[in-house]
Structure formats: C-alpha cells, structure tokens
C-alpha cells in the first residue's frame, strides 16, 4: 500500500501543498535534478492517445500510448530518460504523464493535459517549423496550435488542480444559457462556472466591463468565432441538480433519519443520499444534511432546503392532460413532472401523482379522471411504493 502524506513543495517561487506519496516526491526530485522536460509530439499523436484512453485501454496500452505520444526534450537521450523513470517511478508509471497520475490518481485525460499545458517552460505550446500536416486546420481540435512545448512535471504536480481547460481565444460557446454574471477576468468566470450547478462551459467578454456567459452546452460544434472573447470548459462540472431535481426552498420534512453528513452546500447532499443505502430524500440546514428513508410532515423552516432522489424509472409513462380526483395525501413543489416520481416513492401510502403548474399532488388511489390541459399524471410501478 502506498503511504500518502502532505508535503509542502515549491513551484515557480510559490509554496503549495500537494497530497502525494513519498515515492512520487522522490521521483519529482529526480525529474527536477535531471532537467527532464517533455513535449507532445504532434496533434495526431495527441488525438490517438485521447481516443485510446476514452476507449478503456489497459494499463499497458495506456503506457505505450503515452510513450509514443511524447518526445523527450532534455540533455539525455530518449532511451535513457525512459530507463531512468522506469527504474525510479512506481510500477504504474514510466513517463511524465504517468508520474502526474501517481500524484493525482483518477485524474481524467483533460485534467492531466490541462495541468501539464498550464505549466510550461515556454510562453507557448507551439514550436516553429513543426506541423502535423496540412490536413489538420487550426479551426479543428486537436491541431497544430496544440501539441508542442516544454512541459515541467515538477511544476505541474505541485500546482493547484485545474478547474477549467485551457482558454480558447476568439470563440464563444452558444446554446443553452445558465445565467450571465459580471466578472472582470476569464479566471473569475472559471470559478463562477465551476461553482454554478449545470454550468459546463463559459465565455468571457469585455461587455459592460466584463461579462461571464455561463452555458450548459459544451460541445465543440457549438463554439463560434467571436473576436476578443475567451471560452473554456469546466473539467468537473457541478451538475448535482440535474440528477436531484429542483430543491425546495425553506422546507424541511419529518420522517426516519438514516444518517447525517456535513456538506457546505445543499446541492452536495444529493451524492451523499445516492451513496447511502435506504436514503430517498434529504433536508439540508445550516451545513448539515439529514438523509431520510421516508417523507414525513412538511414544515416551513427559513433557510432549509429539501430534495429527493430521482426515480423516474420507478413510474409509468406520463399521461398528458389528465387529472385524477381525490385521495390526496400530500403536496410538493417541482419544476417538472418527472421529479414528482421521487416525491411519491418517498412518501408512505403514495401510489400515483398529478403534476400541474409546478405542484405535485400525491395520491393514495386513483379517483375519477378528468381532462385538465397541462396536467401530467403517473403511477408507481409494482414494487416501487414506499
């Protein structure tokens, strides 16, 4: 088992703390003393490596892909550098990217690439007179603009983990907008998007002294030219609410408590509930998330927030423009009919629901049906009732 501890390391004159193993720290010293620098060979190799990682390549295949994607840029030969790292680094690593992964286990390809690219010894990732061929235009990624540069593994590992990918200059993200906020720099936009649920990418412009356009869309085909703008993707979007539904504000529920957790924000309760056996809903208040197995009485409490796990698959397909009269046992507020399913499943005695204009009416039995434009109704499937 690898022993981890916090080690304070200096990088570019700034002291930062990184949770890395003793062995990795030794490897970093070897890399620093040996002046080991690497560069991506070209965009084609980078694209190939990206595909292999996303296809679930084995450890051996990943290592081979890394080796073939990199060319050594140091005083010693490529073979000697490989031999040095192979002898010094843990068995899961034989190259610079693998060394980074040994310090940041589980990091995605985009996180590794961004961390290395943001810690280069030159001001650009482009070297003159080196291309990957005329068939790869600069408007397409990856391309000849990316893929070159002196990358410093010591600086990369000791730097804070990146929140956003590299900026893309003069391109904006189009598509669904989460919101727009005033910020003075693109870096501030990165933090804003990272902390905003459902924000996957952003565009920064100089409009009105600086504006962040936060977007739910991050597909490359939805990026268009806009002079002077800066755009980037968030590496780990905060999309808790897409799975959890809309939080109920100033509401708490009684009912059996499974356990409690202490997240800083209500949105994080969703993951806690999802990973806790028996949890169907939660109430967050003052930094405490109370995970519950059943929904009790609804009580108004200023500052509290409540949410239910998504269980749309537990309900039958929606009946449109239908209401069932009577047998009401409770009410919840939801912006979509799908979210009512979880509320019904978490409420004892609920077998069906009707959603209309943001209100879920939970019912114990099916009464007479009537036509109501805009209403949606559904039933819990067999075995799904609380």
UniProtKB/TrEMBL annotation:
Has UniProt tagged this entry with the keyword ATP-binding? no
GO biological process terms, semicolon-separated: proteolysis
- Apple domain location is 164-239
Which EC number(s) are documented for this chain?
3.4.21.62
Q: What keywords is this UniProt entry annotated with?
A: Disulfide bond, Repeat, Signal
| Leading EC class | hydrolase
GO terms, molecular function: serine-type endopeptidase activity
GO CC annotations, alphabetized: extracellular region
Signal peptide (UniProt feature, chain positions): 1-18
Report which reactions are catalysed by this protein.
Answer: Hydrolysis of proteins with broad specificity for peptide bonds, and a preference for a large uncharged residue in P1. Hydrolyzes peptide amides
Q: Does the keyword Signal apply?
A: yes
Question: PANTHER family, alphabetically?
Answer: COAGULATION FACTOR XI, PTHR33946
Protein name (database record): subtilisin
In its UniProt entry, the species of origin is given as Aphanomyces astaci (Crayfish plague agent)
């Amino acid at each position: 088992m690898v022993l981890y501890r916090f080690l304070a390391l200096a990088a570019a004159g700034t002291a930062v703390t990184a949770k890395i193993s003793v062995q990795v720290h030794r490897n970093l010293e070897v890399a620093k003393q040996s002046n080991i620098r690497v560069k991506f060979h070209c965009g084609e190799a980078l694209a190939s490596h990206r595909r292999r990682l996303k296809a679930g390549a084995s450890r051996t295949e990943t290592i081979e892909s890394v080796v073939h994607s990199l060319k050594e840029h140091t005083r010693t030969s490529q073979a000697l550098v490989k031999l040095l790292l192979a002898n010094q680094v843990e068995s899961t690593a034989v190259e610079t990217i693998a060394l980074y992964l040994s310090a940041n286990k589980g990091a995605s390809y985009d996180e590794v690439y961004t961390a290395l690219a943001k810690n280069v010894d030159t001001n650009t990732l482009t070297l003159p007179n080196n291309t990957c061929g005329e068939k790869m235009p600069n408007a397409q990624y990856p391309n000849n603009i990316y893929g070159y540069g002196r990358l410093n593994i010591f600086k990369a590992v000791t730097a804070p983990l990146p929140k956003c990918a590299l900026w893309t200059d003069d391109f904006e993200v189009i598509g669904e907008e989460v919101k727009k906020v005033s910020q003075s720099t693109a870096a501030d936009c990165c933090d804003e998007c990272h902390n905003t649920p459902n924000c996957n990418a952003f565009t920064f412009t100089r409009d009105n002294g600086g504006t962040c356009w936060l977007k739910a869309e991050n597909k490359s085909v939805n990026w268009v030219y806009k002079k002077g703008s800066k755009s980037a993707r968030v590496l780990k979007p905060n999309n808790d609410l897409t799975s959890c539904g809309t939080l109920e504000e100033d509401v708490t529920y009684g009912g059996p408590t499974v356990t409690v957790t202490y997240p800083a924000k209500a949105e994080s309760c969703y993951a806690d509930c999802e990973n806790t056996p028996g949890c169907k809903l939660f109430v967050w208040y003052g930094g405490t998330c109370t995970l519950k197995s059943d929904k009790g009485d609804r009580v108004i409490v200023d500052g509290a927030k409540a949410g239910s796990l998504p269980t749309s698959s537990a309900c039958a397909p929606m009946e449109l423009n239908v209401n069932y009269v009577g047998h009401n046992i409770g009410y919840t507020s939801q912006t979509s009919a799908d979210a009512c399913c979880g509320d019904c499943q978490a409420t004892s005695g609920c077998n069906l629901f009707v959603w209309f204009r943001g209100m879920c009416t939970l019912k114990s039995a099916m009464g007479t049906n009537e036509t109501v434009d805009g209403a949606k109704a559904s039933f819990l499937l067999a075995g799904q009732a609380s």
